[in-house]
Specification:
Layout (H helix, E strand, L loop, with lengths): L7 E5 L10 E6 L7 H24 L3 E8 L6 E3 L4 E4 L8 H11 L6 H5 L1 E2 L2 E2 L2 H11 L7 E2 L4 E2 L12 H19 L1 E11 L4 E5 L2 E5 L8 E6 L6 E6 L2 E4 L9 E2 L1 E3 L9 E5 L5 E5 L4 E6 L2 E5 L9 E5 L6 H4 L12 E5 L23
Parallel strand pairs: 2-3, 3-5
Antiparallel strand pairs: 1-23, 4-5, 6-7, 8-9, 10-13, 10-22, 11-12, 13-14, 14-15, 15-17, 16-21, 18-19, 19-20, 20-21
Length: 363
C-alpha cells in the first residue's frame, strides 16, 4: 500500500531567479455545444496545459503554438511535431506530467528524424543535452538514454517518475538542450528592430508594420540557426515569424508574418554596415528588407537608407551567452503560483472545481 504523499509546486516569483524566454502558447479546441463529459474534460485539460505551458515558458527558450483536442478515440494522449496534442477520455492522463511529456513530442522527441538520428546504442548523442545532464546530475558519466520515441531520465514517461517540482524543471532544461541539439537553434537577441526613419517593426494582429517603437508588438526575438557560420536567423514576433508569402523570390513583395515552418523564405541573413547598422537579406531570394511608409518589402539591394536597420536591445540586457550562466532576480512580482502535480492550479490563479490538493499516487 502506498503511503499518501501530497506534493505542491510553489512557483513563486518572490523566490524565483531565472531568465524566462519561452513563448509557448496553446488553444484548446472545443465543441460548440459541449456535453457534460466534454466540459469536465476541458476543465481538466486546461488546468494541465496551463501548468505545463507555464513551466516551459519559465524554464526553456522554446516557442510554438500548440493546438489541443479532446478525442475519446485516443487511448491515452498523443502529440506530433506539427503542434497537435490530443487527450483521450482517461482522466488520469489529463495532468501536467502527461501534458509536459506530450509537449516533448511537439518539440521533436520521437516525432522527427533529427531525434532518431541522435539515438545511438540507446544513448542520445546531442552535445548540449549530454553537457546538461552531466551538470544536473553532477556526474561526468551521466547520459540521456532513449529509443526512437522517448528519453529518460526526466522524460516524464510515467507519473510515478515525478517526486517533486525539481523533476519538472529538469525535464524543461533537458528539453531545451535537446531542441538545440536537434535543430541547432540559439537565442541571439531580444529587443526591437528600428528603421532609418525612426519607426520599428511592429506586429499588429497578424501583420507586420512599421510603427511606434514603444508598442509592445515591437519586441522581437532573433533566433540563430545552424551550428557553424554562416548562420541564418529567424525573426519572431510573438508566435509568428517574418515570412515572404508563397515563398516568392519576386522583388517588391510585401513582408508578412506566419507560423514557423523552417523554410528559407522565413530565414534572414544580417550584414553589417560601416555606420553600425545592419542590412537584412531574405535567405531564399537574396533580396533586402526595405522600409516603405508603414510597410516592409523585399527589394533589390541598393544604397538606400531605408535598407538600414538598427538592433535595439531591451534595456541593458547582456548577450545570451552571458544570460545562460547568470541568475536574474525577478522578485518584483511576489504573487505565488501553487500548482499540484496532477496539473491543478490552486485558486489564486484559476477558479475551477478541480482546484484541490490530491495524492499523486491516487491512480
Amino acid at each position: 500500500m502506498n503511503t499518501k504523499r501530497i506534493f505542491i509546486i510553489l512557483l513563486s516569483f518572490a523566490f524565483s531567479f531565472i531568465y524566462a524566454e519561452g513563448n509557448v502558447s496553446y488553444t484548446l479546441h472545443k465543441a460548440s455545444n459541449p456535453t457534460e463529459d466534454q466540459l469536465d474534460a476541458y476543465a481538466r485539460i486546461e488546468a494541465a496545459m496551463d501548468s505545463a505551458v507555464f513551466m516551459y515558458n519559465k524554464y526553456t527558450s522554446l516557442s510554438k503554438k500548440i493546438n489541443v483536442y479532446y478525442d475519446t478515440g485516443v487511448p491515452t494522449a498523443q502529440a506530433n511535431f506539427d503542434g497537435v496534442i490530443s487527450f483521450g477520455s482517461s482522466r488520469s492522463y489529463m495532468v501536467v506530467i502527461t501534458a509536459m511529456h506530450e509537449m516533448g513530442h511537439v518539440f521533436g522527441v520521437g516525432t522527427t528524424s533529427e531525434y532518431k538520428n541522435l539515438i545511438v546504442g540507446g544513448v542520445f548523442q546531442g552535445p548540449q543535452t549530454t553537457a546538461k545532464i552531466k551538470e544536473i546530475e553532477s556526474d561526468p558519466n551521466a547520459v540521456i538514454k532513449g529509443d526512437g520515441t522517448h528519453f529518460w531520465p526526466y522524460g516524464l514517461n510515467y507519473t510515478s517518475e515525478v517526486k517533486s517540482e525539481e523533476d519538472l524543471i529538469r525535464h524543461c532544461l533537458i528539453m531545451d538542450a535537446i531542441y538545440k541539439d536537434l535543430f541547432k537553434e540559439e537565442l541571439y537577441f531580444t529587443g526591437k528592430i528600428k528603421s532609418s526613419n525612426g519607426q520599428c517593426m511592429v506586429k499588429i494582429e497578424n501583420s507586420l508594420r512599421l510603427g511606434d517603437c514603444d508598442d509592445s508588438g515591437a519586441i522581437v526575438k532573433i533566433i540563430q540557426l545552424g551550428d557553424a557560420a554562416p548562420y541564418t536567423y529567424r525573426l519572431e514576433f510573438g508566435n509568428l515569424v517574418i515570412d515572404i508569402p508563397n515563398e516568392t523570390t519576386a522583388p517588391n513583395t510585401e513582408v508578412g508574418l506566419y507560423q514557423w515552418n523552417g523554410k528559407n523564405h522565413q530565414r534572414v541573413v544580417f550584414d553589417s554596415t560601416s555606420d553600425g547598422t545592419v542590412t537584412i537579406k531574405m535567405n531564399h531570394a537574396d533580396l533586402y528588407l526595405e522600409a516603405q511608409n508603414d510597410r516592409i518589402f523585399q527589394v533589390v539591394k541598393s544604397s538606400s537608407e531605408n535598407q538600414k536597420w538598427t538592433l535595439m536591445p531591451l534595456g541593458e540586457e547582456p548577450p545570451i551567452s552571458i544570460l545562460n550562466n547568470k541568475l536574474v532576480n525577478t522578485n518584483q512580482n511576489t504573487k505565488p503560483y501553487y500548482v499540484d502535480l496532477k496539473g491543478r492550479v490552486v485558486p489564486s490563479q484559476k477558479k475551477i472545481k478541480y482546484q484541490k490538493l490530491i495524492d499523486i499516487y491516487s491512480h
